[in-house]
Amino acid sequence: MAGMDLPDTSLPEHGTPREELFADLRARKTADADWRGGRTWSLVYPAGEDVDAVLKEAHDLYLYENALNPFRFPSLADMEREVVAMTAGLLHAPAGASGSMTSGGTESIMQAVRVARDRARAERGVTEPTLVVPRSAHPAFAKGAKYFGLELVQIPLDDDLRADVHAAADLIDDRTALVAGSAPNYPHGVVDPIPELAALAASRGVPFHTDACVGGFLLPFMERAGREVPPFDFRVPGVTTMSADVHKYGYATKGASVVLHRAGEHVLQYQAFLYQDWPGGLYGSLALAGARPAAPVAAAWAVLKYLGVDGYVKHVERILATASAIREGVRELGLRVLGDPVASVIAFTGERIMAVGDLMDDRGWHLDRQNDPDALHLMVSPEHDRVVGQFLADLRDAVANAGESRGVQARYS
Ligand SMILES: Cc1ncc(COP(=O)(O)O)c(C=O)c1O
Question: Is the beta carbon of 185 within 6 A of some atom in ligand 1?
Fold first, then answer.
């Protein structure tokens, strides 16, 4: 983790000439993952040079503004509302729904957790709240539980790696502030049984969150493309909040996600922080941060408008074709895909799988490692269709030559 051991660096006494500065920056960057070459399988979601150009131009226009104050920069407030509205429409939020943009999936989830905790306290008198999530739920839920003082309760997974509904029934009780499921989850790319989980929660008067950070901008376009998509959005009764990341499969640059509340302004009040007990005037914010970068808001708005439904459908088709080629290629090599992933996320295991990962590292491919069971993990982006042949050829080689693993730790990056 950055920041553990501080380098022996102090602020230079004199400024650095620009040429020297940028030569240094470029040199430093050569050690970073080659995402443009399609070598990374998470973290960045490349969708092509035309999308990059749109993102850059939007960033450039809004590099310096501050999204904290909607009165100074009304264009930002408008764009943010429009991004939220476009997302709400895609996810079939009913009229009167509300929401906000956040800095990313983690903040969207943490806001949903905080709102649920405060609602449980105010509306049901819950003082020792629990948060009930599948074992495969993103760590953002655990982070939210830790930050906001909830007890995390994990729902075990079924054989198909989706949350076990029967087990969930025993875990939800009077203390439960929120139940959640993923669409799809990060580790296996499968969609939890959202209708069953949401119905269980609703039957006990508990809100339910669908984490569509990955699927929010994938599943709706799969549906438009005529693919079968498990129910996951606000059309499912009992789903009260959702998170969807524009900075994943919306292809925006980092710092753009949406949190949505089915119940509108009344619930958004719980998310809002208003303060005036100081000499600086009324301070209001829906975000965890104070000052907020404007560029991600503008970039998210721009890419959504630029691609439109047909642009996203085109990209989702590319992703699905690549993902299916990878699943097939992986199985042909005698490896096993975990669960039945719906879209872009694939985890696979097999003999000496961690050593296979080491050899793929040596060839410059960046695959995340998982445990329980040991597995390699990838998330397909549109631009991966350019490298899938090479990837599978290298994987074949790695499987044939895998010896002892170097013992790279299972990690999430
Ligand atoms: C299913 C899921 N939820 C939430 C998140 C958190 O998103 P972020 O990294 O933008 O905070 C991720 C990130 O990969 C994810 O895969």
Answer: yes
Percent of the chain with pLDDT over 70: 98
Q: How high is the pLDDT of residue 267?
A: 85
Ligand 1 atom nearest the C-alpha of 412 is: 14
pLDDT for residue 63: 97
Instruction: Supply the pLDDT for residue 4.
Output: 73
In a domain, 360, yes or no: yes
Q: Does residue 2 have a pLDDT over 70?
A: no
DSSP class of 182: E
Q: Which atom of ligand 1 is nearest to the CA of 215?
A: 1
Same domain, 210 and 344: no
User: CATH no. for residue 101?
Assistant: 3.40.640.10
pLDDT at 33 over 90: no
Q: Are strands 336-337 and 345-349 parallel, antiparallel or unpaired?
A: antiparallel
- Domain of 354? 308-401
Q: Is residue 19 part of a domain?
A: no
C-alpha dist (Å) from residue 409 to 34, 369, 406: 21, 7, 9
Confirm or reject: Cβ of 186 under 6 Å from ligand 1. yes
Residues 6+ apart with CB under 8 A from 283: 273, 274, 275, 276
Q: Are residues 243 and 211 in the same domain?
A: yes
Pocket lining: 214 vs ligand 1, CB cutoff 6 Å: yes
Asked whether 176 lines ligand 1 (CB < 6 A), one says no
Q: How far is the CA of 106 from the centre of ligand 1 (A)?
A: 6
198 C-alpha to center of ligand 1: Å?
21
Per-residue pLDDT band for 405 (boundaries 50, 70, 90) equals confident
Torsion angles phi and psi, residue 301, rounded to 5: -60, -45
